């Protein structure tokens, strides 16, 4: 495999996943959250949506998650960019239903977390 | 009767079908003795228009609300078509029916009563085929047939119905009438307005000159003045029916036409062959037509009438007609409920009540009085039946309801009822139905039989009904003929009588009202404050949310017996329910069978939600239906409001006194007997653990006075018919001169004469007093005995006698009957201090009070001398509203004896103080009632050994100003409440673990209470309730400061103390935390945590009183330890009570799928919470201790031991349930716990208090005490966290 070492899934919002974004790379590990818009049983590919953006999720490796359109799910997995269409799809490692989540709060928390990690990283570097 | 044509077509169609119908005989029906209907069997096809008339009308005609509480079932239909063939006959002597004048139906074999729809005169005596019918068995004459549909068997008879052909001689004449009698040449043609009931007139027989009793009845016809009646003119004639004419149907045979004529009311009739007679009614002459031997009835023309299926009211002036469905028949048919708040009174005994007036039959009442009564409790339309009233049944009831049978003959009660105006009659009947509720107790069966209840009602009603509500009755003829002027018309419409109600209906009424109010509030506030609910557990329910309603606004009188419940509450109860009562004066007599009337009271509703306090109360009017039929509606018990009554002085009256019985009994009790005097000093605590079965005795410390009372009631005294009807004054008979010994002259003499003569007044149950002479004699043979020789003893009350114990008042004086072999007498003088004396069930106690006459020879003012301030006593007799003394026995002593008693009093005072110093008590004599005694001198608290709180005990009286919830600890007793009491214009704070459940009835701001044995803390004006404390409520004030009762000079009944099971001290912070204002010293940490495991759980029953089960969970968690994790550390959180309930999620709905709990769950809204099921277990086992004995936190269930105090084994299912309880707690949500740390001393204290071994060292965890627990809303918490992070 190209990437033998898997990184932790960085929590992002779907808005941050645009072609020039630092997260928009092949095999980058991400944690994405959004409402399931559609799901195809044959291909095991679902589409989640959040803030007007959507992302396709390949769920073929998931076993114990039941999919219901309209519920909110969170997936951790690796991004795969299909060259032919230049379209991203997340190869989900794991996923869960997070119905009831407050997406506003979540976005703010993600920001705060990054800020914290950045400060932490900086201080680590100083040391 | 009218019949739509379409219906008749249906009938002819059905007549073919009828051919294969079985012909039933009456004998068969009667032998089966089953209520059946032959209505639906014949015409079951849907095509038939007239299928089962009686049942088809029902679905759309009965009001919806009626369906729900109707427990009747439909008449059983036959499974095959069946007809009955027979003849209709007029009433005759051959069949004696209690209702006297009803139709007979005979099929040759047997005759039964019947009623018939669509009656035609021609049917009488003709053979008819009954196509559709109901049969109801009756005790009296076998049964009752309701003929719904019928036809003539002989079809040749079926002539045109409107021809008017046929005339019916009223007497079966052997010779055709020729109208040759010149006298009987008159005829009357007109509309039959009304018919009187049959009455018997005594008259002279023309031939034998003997007096004979002739039955007869009057008919009022609005006749046409045209002279002759022609049969043909009956059709479409243009007669003017304007002349009022009375026709008297006279004679035995003619009177039998009564039911037939009754059916013709409102229709056109013609009578010929009448003679004229002049009668004199009240001095006025009146022309009356009288039937003769040749009188002939001409049947009416059938007019087309609509069949109406709903209530129709046709009123002309005061009288009118009313068509409606019967909703209930009560009191043997005297009271008939029609529609909502419409009641028909059929009180006149002479009225003919048809058997067919059954629940859900449609009846038409003609010429009935409409009386609208308005009063404080509601508005009711009374339909008062008089002699002009006639009732016909338009549709029979399809239900299997019992027939109306006039079983009771005229008695004094019915005569009494008849003499009242309609509102008063209605009221008296409601009272009668309330007295009905007092049966069922076997011991009083012989006293309160039905006639006795009638008598009781009569006596009670006579005392209540004002004289203008009585109306003279003029007899049938007067009232019928001179109806407008005889007073029947001039009713007093305003009914100021208060409604008498069963207690259950009364309480139910307010529960319904509060529920309505609550739903209104919920509706209003559903939109806003959606997050508020989560914090509700922070605040514990504020018990002080109280509302009071005065009896004047309520307008309801309650009748009941007073009893003391096992939990020590004084309750008024009738058969339906009971309600807590606060009263300032009470007879301590043991006859629990006396009925009291409570008319002046305040209804106290405690425990209202905060939001409800500011809402105006709804003024729903009371439903009289609930009075006669007190079946409580099942309403969801969302509110746990306690209802109690606060009574004013003397507002609790005996309803009746069957004088002679009671009085003789009392007299016999006293006659020539000797009594001990003893003073009850202080009720000691119920020992015994709450979990223990209640087989323990209770003890009372008492002082036995060295005096004996010898009563010298003689036979002559007993025979003296001295008592008056009502409350009598004290001075019934002239004073008997009492002998006074010379040696008694010295004031304050310490020596006692051997004998003191006195006058004894015994207050009997019948509200009168019995006066007799008595002698107080010295127990000791020695002439001079120091009063200090009074002995302190311990009275033991075995559980059977706990009733006595509850009724005893601190400081009260009691008489006890002398028995030769009781332990009081065994030694006679052998009682020594601190002896234990058993009190046996057969021992009777009377409360006694002493008064002193200045001069026994003259009837001057009586100086009353209370022994202690709280002693019920007669103050100034002329000023006391109730002339009754408050104690059972009062002794009038010579004034000289006062000195003696003041010594005695002083003695008592000292003894009554827990730590009597015996010094500087010089001026205690004659202390006034409202004076406060504060005896606790601030003293130094000795260094506490922390096992028991120490300090001086005090007793005082004051007004409760406020009760605040605090969480702090005073002298090692954790307090949940602080009671601010105003004593002598000073605020005194009393701290205590008083919980809502242990709340005394009526306690709260506004109550004037006496606190006994309150522990002084050493700080100024700070006291602590201990397990020995005793609170007595003297009176209550309304929140606006208005005194609810008249200033209670008399002391209140001793209310229950804070019993040890309600007293759960749990030590909090150490003695350092002596600040009561809050928890500022107490470092309280709030953290969100999750329950990992339950370390210890103690469940125990709270009270043994089963009556409390209904509203509150009846068990408590005195201590629970949870292993909790707040994300950073694990610690052991101890808590108790409601907080533990919350953490264990006991109030949540029971998740059925979690565990196989088939035996625990029955679908029922009240049973859906876990707490319900747990309560069942705790009730059985009294006290359950669950303990995790392992050292590992996460080894679920492996090391859990369950110990129970009951001798029953823990069932497997119960064990599973308890373990599930732990699992349920562990899988609970995040809790926000406000906790403070605990040290080992506190743990040890808890261990001692709960008698458990906690052994916290095994887990090696930090111990904390959870003060507050509430569920965390993660979202709210997260937002606030974020906010905090962003701000920082």
Automatic annotation (TrEMBL), chain A:
Domain of life: Eukaryota
Gene, per the UniProt record: LOC104701036
Lineage: Eukaryota, Viridiplantae, Streptophyta, Embryophyta, Tracheophyta
Annotated PANTHER family: CST COMPLEX SUBUNIT TEN1
Entry-linked InterPro entries: NA-bd_OB-fold (IPR012340), Ten1_animal_plant (IPR029146)
One Pfam family per UniProt: Ten1_2
Official protein name in the record: CST complex subunit TEN1-like
UniProtKB/TrEMBL annotation, chain B:
Official protein name in the record: CST complex subunit CTC1
Family note: Belongs to the CTC1 family.
Keywords recorded for this protein, A-Z: Chromosome, DNA-binding, Nucleus, Telomere
InterPro entries, sorted: CTC1-like (IPR042617), CTC1_plant (IPR028262)
Signal peptide: none
Location of the protein in the cell: Chromosome, Telomere; Nucleus
